[in-house]
Write a structure and sequence with these properties.
With 327 residues, this protein is α+β, with helices and mostly antiparallel strands. The chain is 40% helix and 26% strand. It has two domains: 53-237, Chemotaxis protein chec (3-Layer(aba) Sandwich), CATH 3.40.1550; 265-326, Surface presentation of antigens (SPOA) (Roll), CATH 2.30.330.
Length: 327
């Protein structure tokens, strides 16, 4: 049977450990272990992160640009100042995303051709009613009633959603040109089952503010939908893509600058050497022998620089040179 130590025996044991210097070492080890545990992050092996931090930053940058463009579009549609701010970009499970949505909701399912799969766009009811009120000439007042949208209200929101799809297409152009179309509307998020409950989804949260009203707009991309474009989401790929676009724009700009520039083009049929006496005695009908063979290409100059080689001949009733190769 194990012996239970008394309080005096415990005190003596601790004092002996402290005297031998082992107590401080144990305390240091315990403190170091506590620091490690404090910095540790729990990792769920059942729901691993499918996208790297680099790829998540690329998505954050893309939708930050989307927020700016959508802000301008909404301001024009509602004829008032609308702020759109990117709040977060998260990886969660599909069940967690569905549970975060309000019911009744204003949720749209859309396709991203040529990508397989679908995406989801959800508007908080508070901001939906504010948009509807503003579109009918109001001040953008939010209704507290929890109800589904009427047919007229859905028609108003369809205009806003269509514009959001256009801006989203522009956002994805730098990665992959996509054609976004609405495939379904649902007021109860529990009925939207596009992927399994445990599947990883990327959720983009944006805050919409108009006058005294505000609400959350959420864009959800299942990983299965983005799987075909994941490799292009790395920062290096994005930089290379942007560099190609810049190089193409620079070439077009340089070409436009060169169009109005005037210069002369001349063709040298051949060369020869004459004495001053021969040059003075030249008259009509004389033949000057050149060092150029009849089957050889002639030199074509642009300005004072040799640029091409070609064959002399006729084009209709005019003398011409057919370019055969570059110098």
């Amino acid at each position: 049977m194990a012996k239970i130590l008394s309080q005096d025996e415990i005190d003596d044991l601790l004092s002996n450990v402290a005297t031998n210097g082992e107590g401080s070492e144990l305390l240091e080890k315990a403190s170091a272990k506590a620091d490690i545990l404090g910095k540790a992050v729990a990792y769920d092996f059942k729901h691993p992160n499918r996208l790297s931090k680099d790829q998540m930053r690329t998505l954050e940058s893309l939708h930050s640009n989307f927020a700016g463009h959508f802000r301008s579009a909404l301001s024009g549609i509602t004829r008032s100042v609308v702020d759109v701010d990117l709040l977060s970009v998260d990886q969660i499970t599909y069940s967690e995303f569905i549970m975060s949505l309000m019911s009744p909701s204003c949720t749209y399912v859309f396709t991203l051709s040529p990508l397989d799969g679908v995406g989801i766009m959800d508007f908080n009811p508070s901001v939906v009613f504010a948009f509807v009120d503003r579109m009918f000439g109001g001040v953008g007042k939010t209704l507290n009633a929890e109800r589904e949208l009427t047919g007229i209200e859905k028609s108003i929101m369809k205009k806003i959603v269509s514009r959001s799809f256009k801006e989203l297409e522009k956002t994805w152009e730098s990665i992959l040109p996509v054609n976004i179309k609405q495939s379904a509307f649902e007021s109860n998020p529990q009925f939207i089952q596009v992927v399994p409950q445990g599947e990883t989804v990327i959720v983009i949260s944006l805050q919409l503010k108009m006058m005294s009203s505000s609400g959350i707009m959420t864009i959800c991309y299942p990983y299965l939908t983005l799987e075909g474009v994941v490799e292009k989401l790395s920062a290096q790929k994005s930089m290379d893509k942007n560099k190609k676009i810049v190089d193409k724009d620079n070439r077009l700009m340089n070409a436009k600058r060169l169009v109005p520039v005037q210069t002369y083009v001349k063709t040298v049929l051949g060369n020869t050497t004459l004495t001053v006496r021969d040059l003075i005695n030249i008259k009509a009908g004389d033949v000057i022998k050149l060092d150029q063979r009849i089957y050889q290409d002639v030199d074509v100059y642009v300005g004072d620089k040799l640029k091409f080689h070609g064959k002399p001949g006729l084009s209709g009733n005019q003398l011409a040179v057919k370019i055969t190769n570059y110098h």
